[in-house]
Specification:
The chain has 397 residues and is of the alpha/beta class. It is built from 13 helices and 12 strands. Helix content is 36%, strand content 15%. The chain binds pyridoxal-5'-phosphate. Pyridoxal-5'-phosphate (PLP) binds next to helix 3. Pyridoxal-5'-phosphate binds next to helix 3. It holds the Pfam family Cys_Met_Meta_PP. This is Aminotransferase class I/II-fold pyridoxal phosphate-dependent enzyme.
Length: 397
Amino acid sequence: MTKRTYGKEYGFKTRAVHTGNDVDAETGAIKRPITMANSYELPYDPSDMNWSSAGGNLYTRNGGSNQKYLQEKLASLENSEDCIVLSSGVAALSGLFFALLEKGDHVIFSSVTYIAVYRLLNELLNNKFGVETTIVDTTDPENVRKAIRPNTKLIHIETPGNPTLMISDIEAIAKIAHENNALLSVDNTFASPYNQRPIELGADFTIESLTKYINGHGDSMGGAIIGKTEYLDIIRAQSQINLGGVISPFNAWLIMRGSVTLPLRMKQHNENALAVAKWLESLDCVSFVAYPGLESFKGHEIAKKQMHDGYGGVLSFGLKTDHDTHNKFVSHLKVITSAVSLGHDESLIVFLGEDDERQYLYPDEFSNGFFRFSVGIEDVEDIITDIEQALKKVGLL
Ligand SMILES: *Cc1c(COP(=O)(O)O)cnc(C)c1O
């Protein structure tokens, strides 16, 4: 049997291909198989086993082999010690919050985040379980410093933030967190570890929705918490085994397979999105373009510092037109699909209307309705031509 475990002496692309894979000891296959079993054979005398343990093969909710292979790869790609893979990005976020926070603890979180984070921290954990929460515009680290309380346990930021792309300075906020005995978690879904690795910048936890870039093909769901084993053991025991948001072996396998091409896909997403953002910015009918790669974007300098290989595939933009023309424009698109989610191979667009309940947390230019556009890896000329012909059909070009 050839040993194929690749350590940090290898580059990112080599690890995306090899880490977590090995020759299958039983068959000699050069790809590890999917183990579609939920239970494992017990030892001769199982009576003293810990049924809530994460060690060893016992029951798939406690830990399955495909889940472990994927964890090995993701921990390596994020340059961290350990990883927990769960059933969705939201299972990872709620699993982190549930295990770390207790009644009376205080959390500071970014004003622009994935909607479930807003629900969890602004409605559920505070009202149901007595966790104190403060929404902060984390684009200025000083706002975070001012919001710190003696009981601040966790700072949770999302950068780039969904859907405004707002950028927060990971290194500066990690410093503030640690000076105040708090932990920092960063939702890295928009960047992916190819473009940004929060733990290298001082964060304690990285959260990834694997549903997006890491799987990359729009055909499965998963989430990951990456960080030190010291904390991840607690999260594994409390949130994976006892909350139960475990990933299926098949989804772990699909994501493992999709992640092999993460570096190639991200390179194309980065290039396509930058080209589309620049082109959109040049049009008179476009009211604004939010993309961290544009020099005109507010967070560009910080993004340049912390996003080492590019700015990702998601941008938001507005059109100088009325509500219904936005929908008409979308109905004329042929290459780009109107659907939520992002980070798929194909381009996806979603119209977020004027009455989003969190509009008050967004910059002014977002108040007339806007598009969140996940630029895919198609030929960039085809993406631009598609937008162009749809704008012409609604009389904006
Ligand atoms: C999609 C998304 C999530 C949630 O992930 P799911 O896999 O859909 O549960 C979390 N954070 C960000 C930034 C996302 O875009």
